[in-house]
Amino acid sequence: MAGTPELDQVAEARRRIATHASLPGPYWVAFAFAGVLLAGLPIWRALLPTEGAYLDWGLVALAAASAVYAIVRRRRTGVYLPRRVTSYPGARTLWIAALAATGAGFLGIQALVDHGHMGLALAALIPVAAVMLVGHMLVRAAMRRSIEAGRVKP
Q1: Quick one: which of 85, 131, 134, 146 could link to 90 by a disulfide (CB 3.0–4.6 Å)?
Q2: What is the rounded CA–CA span in Å between residue 44 and residue 51?
Q3: Nearest Cα residue to 94 out of 128, 130, 140, 125
Q4: Is 69 left (phi over 0), alpha (psi -120 to 50) or beta?
């Protein structure tokens, strides 16, 4: 059974737009590195002798670089997708689950550092960062599926 040419064109346009929801490999490497840094904030604050003054500026620089990357990418591609995860129905639940798991891991690391268990906190760092990375990748995949299905809300 042959499809309707107009509907096929719409489906192809959605697939092309959905490719912009995917992020390049270097982004994921940088995200993994940033995830380790962010998940380990309680550890780094306890280990740094300067009370984390440089760490605060590093976080500001990381946030600014992330914002600039998003703006440049949108302008370069010309594709302006909604930035809120809640605009993508398929990604909402995954986003909430990833956010909850990451928050619980962060709080767990903070509790370990507060009780002087630095070794356990360091051991928990990589799994927490991995959960953060995998959660973000799953959310991005769900966003792409929502775009392909045409279920994005403005």
Answers
A1: 146
A2: 9
A3: 140
A4: alpha
* pTM of the model as a whole: 0.77
* pLDDT tens-digit series, residues 32-48: 888 888 888 888 888 87
Q: Return the closest-CA partner of residue 141 out of 18, 5, 10.
A: 18
* DSSP 8-state secondary structure symbol assigned to residue 101: H
Looking from the CA of 135 toward its CB, the CA atoms found within 13 Å total: 21
Per-residue pLDDT reduced to its tens digit, 50-83: 665 677 777 788 888 888 887 887 787 776 777 7
Q: How many CB atoms lie within 10 A of CB 24?
A: 9
Non-local CB neighbours of 148 within 8 Å, separated by 6+ positions = 11, 14, 15, 18
What gap in Å lies between CA 154 and CA 145, rounded to an integer? 16
Q: Considering only CA atoms, which of 34, 38, 27 is closest in space to residue 69?
A: 27
Length of the chain: 154
Q: The tokens 């991995």 sit on which residue?
A: 130
